[in-house]
Structure formats: structure tokens, C-alpha cells
Amino acid sequence: MEQLTRAWDWSKNKDKHWIIPSEESYYLLNRWKDKKFNKFLDLGCGLGRHSILFARNGFNVDSVDLSELAVDMLNNWANKEKLNLKAKVSNMMDLPFSDNYFDCLLAYHVISHTDSKGIVQVLLEIKRVLKENGEFYLTLCSKQGLNFDDSELVKLDENTIVKTEEGPEQGIPHFFVNDDDIKAVFKDFKLITVRQVQDVIVGGENYNSWHYFILGKK
């Protein structure tokens, strides 16, 4: 059975925060500079906020996303700034890179966009393209979030629901985990830090969303 995933429909996006680097990315930038890392993969780059940040700071950046629109917008942005950045359309379950290629990898609100079978394949690809002792930072949806227990949403398996509300994520599967799931899913990696974070207010508006933030290494 083919693993399930879908691209965001960026033509429906109205939120400008997707072009502003996340808070965590600045910590990672300095951490990975200190480790003398250079080859960086922005996995599921979206509009490219993290790709641009790392390229501006001297990293050799490759960026992939399933959305052709997002990749085109990022390439135009990078070309205007004459940055060392290559973006291409790619499925996260079949990355177009050789083994042991990257020093570090960021997948911010990305790899959750599949089902339980798909997440296994994504992590196999992450392990394949990272160098030995290379590091990754990624996020996963937490089962503590209200969406996971919404009885009106389609449930594909015990960890996966499909978003139905209007917007760029409509129809996209979301894989959810708890503490025990993380230990099982990442058994072939060394986990450095795992945090579970609740967003209470975002952009001045009330919000209720829980995610895991995971730093690990091959």
C-alpha cells in the first residue's frame, strides 16, 4: 500500500508568519554553526523561511517540498538574494539525495503529514541521508491536542486523522504521537531532547495546539 501524504495548498495561505523563521531555528543555526555543520536540508521547506535563514548564514542549503508553487516561490526568493540554495519538488518518502549527505536536517511541522506507515518511511529516509552523528530537528503533532479526539474527523489509523477545515491543510493526513509512540518510532536514533509544547496564544489570538519538538542524531 502506498504511504499517504499531500502537499499544502499554498494558494490558500493568508498567514504571513510562514515567511518568518521559527524561534527554534535561531538556536539550531548557532548550535550547528558551532558544530561546523554546513550541508543543511530543509525538509518540507514550504515558502522557505528556514532555507533562507540558513543560506544567509553561510550554510550549503538544499530544500524540498511536495508543493511546486512553494518551491518556485523559494527559488525566486533565493535567486533575488543570490544565495547558495537549491530547492526542488520532492516527496519526503523518497528524497533525491545520496546516502550520508547532510550534516543537519530541519523538518518543522512537516513529517506529521502522513499516516503510520508513511512516518516509518520518512524516518528511514532521514536516517539514510544524514551523515553519521548528523543531527535532525523536527516536530510531531501531540495526541494531547484537541484535534486528535475530534469524533467528526476521519481517522485513518490509531495515530492518524485527516484535517477537514477550509484552508491550505484541508484533506491532509496528520500523524499524532504520545511519549511512548516517540520512543518506539525513534528507536533507531539517539534522542537528545524531546519537548512537548502547548501554543496558547498565536498572533494575539487564542489558540490550542500541542506539538513535540525533537532534537536527535543518527
Topology of this structure?
Elements lengths: L22 H12 L4 E5 L5 H8 L3 E6 L2 H14 L3 E5 L12 E6 L8 H14 E13 L11 E4 L2 E3 L10 E5 L1 H7 L4 E13 L2 E13 L1
Structural class per helix/strand content?
alpha/beta
Helix content: 25-40%
Run of helices and strands: HEHEHEEHEEEEHEE
Work out the helix count: 5
- In terms of DSSP E residues, the strand content is 25-35%
Protein name: Class I SAM-dependent methyltransferase
GO molecular function, one term: S-adenosylmethionine-dependent methyltransferase activity
GO biological process, one term: methylation
Domain Methyltransferase type: 41-137
Q: Could you please describe the fold and organization of this structure?
A:
This protein is an alpha/beta fold and 218 residues long. It has one domain (20-217): Rossmann fold, CATH 3.40.50.150. 25% of the residues lie in helices and 33% in strands. The protein contains five helices and ten strands; from the N terminus they run αβαβαββαββββαββ. Strands 1, 2, 3, 4, 5, 6, 7, 8, 9 and 10 form a ten-stranded mixed sheet that branches. A hairpin with a 2-residue loop joins strand 6 (154-157) and strand 7. The mean pLDDT is 91.
Features:
218 residues, alpha/beta, Rossmann fold, 5 helices, globular, SAM-dependent_MTases_sf, Methyltransf_11, methyltransferase
